[in-house]
Each structure stands twice: as structure tokens, then as C-alpha cells.
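User: Can you predict the 3D structure for this chain?
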Amino acid sequence: MVMRAYPKTVLRTIKNNPGRFVSITLIILLGIAFISGLGTLSYKMRHALAYGYETACAPDVIVVGKTEEGVSGRAIERFSGSSEVAQAQNYTVIEAGSTRIYVTSLGDQRVGKLVLREGRFPQNADEVVAERESDAVKPRNLGEVVTALGGEKTVVGIVENAMLHYRGGEAARTGDGTIDSVYYLDDAYYPSVFPVTDVYLRMNLNGRGEYFSEKYDDAAAAAAEALRGESDGSEEYLTLRETQDYALAQSYEKKINVIVAVFPVFFIAVAALVVLATMTRMIEEERSMIGCYRTLGYGDGKIVFKYLFFSLVCCLLGGSGGFAIGLTLLPRAVLPAFRSMFFLPDWNRWLNPFMGVIAALGMLIAVCSVTVYLIRRELRVPPAAILRPKTPKAGKKIFLEHIPVLWKRLSFRYKSTLRNIFRYGKHLLMTIVSVSGSTALVLAGMGLSDVSRSDHIRESFSNMADSMSMISFVIIAFAALLSALVVYNLTNMNIEERKRELATLKVLGYHQAEVCGYVFREVFIMALMGIAIGLPLGYGLCRFAFSYLEFGSVSDVRWYSYVVTALFVAALVGIVDLILQFKIKKVDMTSSLKTVE
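Assistant: Here is the predicted structure, written as C-alpha cells:
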């Protein structure tokens, strides 16, 4: 009979602790969503751009002639006869002011293929196709007449060049300024008129890796170096890493990876700390229940599993929900900001759960380990001792009581508040650490937003600043939710543990506002301590992140961001207190004052 009731006791652990179950699950969900969402951003961007390069058969080596004669005929013959070269395509690149013209074989595209989006390719010498519109490149319409190669040409098609994926445009090869018009002509209608200025080479790379990977970059660099060694010095050999668009994408990916390395680790540490504290408190409160299980004949394994099941379900639900949000919804929210900087194909096909899996496993191991440890610790105590609640901690003077000038000036309510704050050291430490961590994350998000909006950053990285602003918003939003859940969880624990005290105050005639103030005053003071520590901690986090981002500095963080951060976190604490006042109102004086002996 006892054993048949065991499954019910396991499930009843969740039923009897709904607040803790929901709060732990939500905190885990937030942590996993945050780290898996940020962790997949650079992966998605890199693979989306790499897909474009692969589809277009992007060149591994670009040969550029250094003289007016362009690439020598001898070099072109060498490329065609080399076993190291898989495919080659000749280009003539002509610039006139802010206009760039590519003359190549549009009927036989092998390397650097263009994707036709509208219209068709040229069918005579008076027709061209134009590059798609971007922040720098002007829009062109089918049938529009433009000037190219000294004559009028009709635009018959709009194309996408995968190598021109940066919306900010390319700098002109000669002179200053940015290219705002790009046209492509078919060399079939211009036989032997122009010298070959560029040759795109697709190499037979040994161990070709993915674009943007160190393996690919090293292989391409080695191939370029080998070709350079065979040349007479009249050509320049470049890899994709040395082109503007590829280098910008790679630099941006590294900046995102810095954010992924710094912020989620800090975030998950705060979340894990709160979860562990909650489990610790729940197990301590159920000491007598554990003693009952032992006297009823339950083995240690079954008792451990009862609480381990609670932790596992929280981790499973929180982790699953976190993955769903982090891998789908969060990237969708940030995608528009990424597309304001780069042309990206549909990137929903690429998922990278690695960071989320690592975070989920870390959280699972931490939560389950502490659960097993705490239960095993309680099981070492004789059953008779476990059945009795722990002896309340003896009261003692706090350090302020040794300063009579200050202590005597305080009213009774503040004396009581300060005694309780320092009496429950674990609560004080947990609240300060959790609130300070959340405050630091909010300030870091505010700082990143300030840097993105600063004038000198806007001038140099206008598109990047937009996407960084969106990422900063995500950091602030998740940090705010974490802060609210942290304060709710800790305050809820405080109320649960002190129901007898609150019931006593009600019996003594205290009004609802006075009883609420008894708890919330302590929470608010501890939160203010956390905010005071969190602001300099956030400053240090900003300084550390910006030094590795190579994007802005702490001097770009507005002074009022510190004030807004403090007020914002304080407001969250106030909102949580308003929500929890109804829990205090429901404290039953009769049942709460019943003896527990």
C-alpha cells in the first residue's frame, strides 16, 4: 500500500510547491532561451552568407592585375593548365566615378555566378543588368536607360552578386567615395576590347572547410601563396578574407561571439544561483516530511528521486521551452536588424543548439547535483531528529547596534527590519547577488545601446549599430525578466518561511499595509544594496565587453543610463511587491499559528 502511494507522493511535490515549480521552470527557460538564442545568431548569419557564396561558386582566389594591361595572358594560360585550379572566370572591372562595370561571360558563368531576380540577361551590346538596390547602390528599373562605357544602355535585368552582400556598399578602387551604381555586361558583345583586370579562381583546396571558418581561410591563403610564388609579380593574389564584404561579415561575427561568450555566462550564473537557493530552501522546509518517509520504510533512493524528479521536470520543461524560444522566436526578432546590414537568404534552415545544450546540461547537472547533495545531507541525520524542525537561529546584535548614536535614532520598525535583514544571512546574500547580477546585465544592455547610438559609431558602423541596438534590447528585456523572477522567487520564499511571524502581526492588530511593509521594506533595502553593487559591476562588464568587441567604449555610456538602470530595477522590485501583497493578505492567522511541534 505504501509503495503504491509512492508515485502520488512524487507528483504531490509539484502540486504542493506550485510557486517554486513555476518560478524555477521560468528562470531555467529564460536562461536557456537567452543563451541558445544569442548562441545561434552568428551561426545563422555565417551559414546564410556561406550558402550564398557556395551557390554562387564564389572564388577562393581573386587575381588582380597591377598594371593597365591587367592580368597577363601568360598568367591566364597558367591558370587554365593548373591542376590546382578547378574553374576560372575572367572579368574586366571598369570604374568611372561612383559607377562600376563588370564585363564577363554572362552566358557561361562558372565562378562568381549572378542570380537573376528580375528580367533577363543581355542579348546585345546595348543591354545591361544592374545590381540590386542597397543602402549605397541606387535602385534601377527594367527598361531604364543608363550610361555605361560611354554610351546609353537599357537595363534588362536585376541581379544579385553574392559577393556584394554588405548593404553599405563597396569603396571605389580608385579615388574616394562609395560605388552607387553597378552594371554587368556580357563580353560576348565586346570581343577583345578590354583587358582582363581580374580573374576569379575556384581552387581544388585540400580539406576545403566552410566559408568564414579558419580551416577555409588558411587553405585559401595557402593556395594564393602558392600561385603568388609562381607569378612574375605583375598580379596581386587575394582571398575572400581580403575583400571588404567577407571581412566585414567575419568581423561582425566575432563581435557577436564576444557578446555570446560574455553576457550569457553572466546571465546563466545568476539564474543557476537562484534555482539552487530555491531547491535548498524547499528541501530544508520538508525535513519533517523526509523523516516521515524514512519511518514509513522508504529507501534513500526513493526519497532522493522524489526531489530529483521535481528538479528534472523543471529542467525538462524550462529547457524545452527555452530551446523553442531561443532557437526560433529570438532570432526572428533580431533578423530584421541583421538584414539591415547584410543581404541574407532565408536562414531558418540553420539551427545551432550547441550553446543551449551546453547551458541546459550545465543547469541540469548543477540543479540535480545540489538536490542529491542536500537530500543526502538530510538523510545522514537520525529520523527522530529529522522529524523535528530545525531550531530557529539565535538572535544576536547586528553591527549597527554597536553604534548607539545611530541606532537610538531609528524607529522600532526600522530596527526590526535591519535585524531581520542581517539575521537571515542567506537571504541577504542571495538577494544582493541576484539583484546585482541582474542590474549589471541591464546596465550592460543600456551601455551597448548607448554605444550603438553614439555619433562616431554611427558614422563608421551605421548598419552594425542598428543590429547591436536590437541585441542590446534583447539583453535588457531578458535581464529585466530575470530580475523580476529573481525578486519574486526570493520574496515568495521569504513570505513562505515567515508565515507565522506575519500571522502573529495580524493577530496583534497590524493593518495589511503594515504587514506588507514588514516584508517588503526588507526586500527593498536588500534590493537597493544589490543595485548599488550592480552598477559598478555593470560598468566593469561594459568595459570588459567593449575591450573585446572593439566597438565603442565605456565613455560612450550616458550618465543617465546608470540612473535609468537603478530606477528600472527598483521599479521591477516595486511591481513584484505589489503582486505579492495578495499572498500576504491570504495568510491564514489560525493555520499559520498552529504548533509545529
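Residues 61-204 form one domain. The beta strands are 61-65, 85-96, 99-104, 114-119, 127-131, 145-148, 151-161, 181-186, 198-203, 235-239.
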